[in-house]
């Protein structure tokens, strides 16, 4: 998967809250379970970072930088769902 140059990647101060929100949306009540967090991070952490850093997803980076984490998370969720649907076919 192509990635944006390092200087255009989403900065950690925006990336972390976006990842945290996605974890909360995907795990729900299990968010407090450190074991579940670890499993989630292993399954989705890199995948989500790759989505965020794909050049075509400037919208996600822009929303996160503007503090619009919910909107950015919705886009990431739709992409993950589409990937899951393709893999399930």
**Taking Cα atoms only, what radius of gyration do you get, to the nearest Å?**
13 Å
- Mean pLDDT, to the nearest integer, reads 90
Q: What is the helix fraction of residues, given as a range?
A: over 70%
Helix and strand sequence: HHHH
The assigned structural class equals mainly alpha
Helix count equals 4
Given the C-alpha coordinates, what overall shape results?
globular
Number of strands: 0
Ends distance:
21 Å
- Biggest β-sheet description: none
| Beta-strand proportion | under 5%
As residue ranges, the low-confidence spans are none
Number of individual domains: 1
Structure explained in plain terms:
The protein has 89 residues and is mostly helical. The protein has one domain (6-88). The protein is 71% helix and 0% strand. The protein contains four helices and no strands. It has helices spanning 12-27, 34-52, 58-65, 69-88. It is globular, with a radius of gyration of 13 Å. The mean pLDDT is 90.
What would you say about this model in short?
This protein has four helices and no strands.
Please describe the structure with a list of short key phrases separated by commas or semicolons.
globular; mainly alpha; 89 residues
Helix/strand layout:
Blueprint: H1 12-27, H2 34-52, H3 58-65, H4 69-88
């Amino acid at each position: 998967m192509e990635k944006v140059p390092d200087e255009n990647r989403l900065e950690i101060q925006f990336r972390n809250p976006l990842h945290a929100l996605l974890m909360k949306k995907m795990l729900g009540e299990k968010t407090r379970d450190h074991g579940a967090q670890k499993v989630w991070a292993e399954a989705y952490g890199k995948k989500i970072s790759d989505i965020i850093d794909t050049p075509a997803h400037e919208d996600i980076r822009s929303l996160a930088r503007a503090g619009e984490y919910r909107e950015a998370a919705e886009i990431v969720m739709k992409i993950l769902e589409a990937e899951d649907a393709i893999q399930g076919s």
